[in-house]
Every structure is written in C-alpha cells, then in structure tokens.
TrEMBL record:
It comes from the Bacteria. Residues 22-240 form the Iminophenyl-pyruvate dimer synthase domain. This is Iminophenyl-pyruvate dimer synthase domain-containing protein. It comes from Azospirillum lipoferum. Pfam families: Ferritin-like.
Amino acid sequence: MLKIQPQFAQGIDTVQVLRNALQSAVELEHATLPAYLTALYSIKAGTNREAAAIIGSVSVQEMLHMTIAANILNAVGGHPVIDKPGFIPVYPGPLPMGVHEGLTISLGKLTRSLVYDVFMTIEEPEVPQDYPVKQPALAMFQQKATAAQEPGFATIGDFYQAISDAIGRMGDEIFTGDPSHQVVDNTWFPPDQLFPVTDVASAQRAIQVIVEQGEGTPKSPREADNEAALAHYYRLAQIVYARRLVKDPHEPLGWSYSGAPVGIDPAGIWNLYPNAKTVDYPPGSRARTVSQQFNTTYTALLTALHVTFNGEPERLRGAIGLMYELKLTADQLVAIPLPGTDYTAAPTFEYAPVNV
C-alpha cells in the first residue's frame, strides 16, 4: 500500500490547509499518468490488445480522479494550479508528498515487472485480497503479502479519508466556490462518476469514487457501483498473472486469476530508451524534434487543463483533443531507432511552454 508522511493526512483543520491537501491530491493523481502512458505508448499498434486496454482504462480513470480532485478544490474556494514546471515530477523519482519512501517511478516500456513492482504498488489497497493464481501461473511473481502499516506513516486511503472527514467537520459553509467552475462534461465520464461538487455529501461521494476505483471494496475486487469494472489494482494484476480475474465458486474468496489469458508478446513492445530526456537525443535529429513536439503538446495539455479547471469547463473537450494529439506524436516518437543502441526514442514528459 502507498504510504505518505503523516502530516499530509493529519491536521486538516482549516479551509486553507484543506485546499493545500486537495492541490496535493491533484498533483498526485497526475503524477502516475506519465508512467502509465509511457508503458501504453510502448505497445505497438494492433498488438497486446488486452494489456493495452487495461492500462488505457486505468489511465483514463486517473484523469477522472484528477478532475474530481480539482472539482472539490474549486468547490471549497480554491484554484487548481497545473500549468507550472514544478507540477510535473522528475522521472525517475518519487511521487509527490513523499509517497511510499523508496518507491521510484520510472518511464519505461511495458513489462510484467514494471506492472508488478510499480503500478500495482501505486494502486495497492490497504488490505489487498489474496485471490489465487491458477495455471498458467508465473513463478517469478507471487501475490503481494499484506504488509503491516509502518509506524509513523499513513496510507493514501488515510489521506483521502482525512480530507473527507475534514469536509464533514467544516460543513456546507466552506463550499464558497463558483458552481460554474465545476467540470461535468458527461461525454467523457458518466454522471455517477463525474458530477458537480456543491456540498459535503457530493464531495464525500466524489472522494469515494476515487478510492473505490483504485482499491475496490473490502469484500470485492470490483468498483462498488460498477459490476463490470475491476478496481485498478486487480485490473493491473491480470497483466502480471497472465489471466483474467473471474468469479470462481471453488475458491473461498469467490474469485481467481483463471480466466482468459492476458499475454504480453515482446515482439509487440518497443524497446524504449528508459527515463529519457530530450537532451539525450542528438541536436537536429528526428528524435529530438519529435520529442520537443511531444513536450510542447503535453505542456499545452496542462495549460488547457489549468484553464478548464479555473473557470472555463467547456474547454475540457479541447484538452481531450490534445490527449489524442499527444498519442499520435508518441506513436511517431517510439518508432524512431536511436543510432548505436538497441533502443527506440521515448517520450520524456518535460515542461515546454510555447513562447508567443
């Protein structure tokens, strides 16, 4: 389970401290996206469809969680700050808020080890359910043991619970934000997941969406209100254990990794240069040019989201369009071989504003 320094889950006793915590939540939800997207971009078109669908679906919901956190921050009179260099973590490096000391987030190609060691650690529930892995099982991977919580640390679940509790204590009077700033375009996310946050009840319900989509519920690997969707941790585990997690009446917990195969064909994965920076590509090379284009589009996306979350929610559609443009540029970048190596170029997710 992810652990954070305890001060981030304690002492939320004023509206300003609450706003700071929610800004941290926005940053945390974004911080995982470059790692997920790099792994997704490493999958060659038309291959590894099951793995691509799983990672793609998790990435989309991380965008939803970022939007929800921004909505709650707006609702309590705050202003999400996204369009700044420091909003982007340094990769490889830690997550914001000192999350899980020792966990390093890297940008690299899709492997089962990456999913197991990093992605499943990011999404791990406080008490993960130990569903059996049936044949074919991968001997190198074992179910994660439920670790005792380290003294002096809190979990991400504690962090969100502290925000929810603080909102409950402070009451509806803290909801001073302009309702017109709420992002609720249900073209992209259904109304039971993305809805206006206007009071204690809607804010706490929104927080519950974030937690349950990531962790599931204590009794099920599914999201509480979506029987068709597994929580992120169990969804990703299907890649590691090479089998779909399905209901299994022969098991005490009622589930096992015994469904349809979820394979990874190495021939369908680009061998991305790990943790690349644009300066790693020679000046004037196509890799550097396309990398710069990628970063310009990525920064434009952050700018568009900043504007969207700060009074122009109708700009969400334009931001989504930039996400598609980012994918098209990434597809060009990852196919560029790097001379003298076995690698291809990789996205670097660096801040690159356009000077006008």
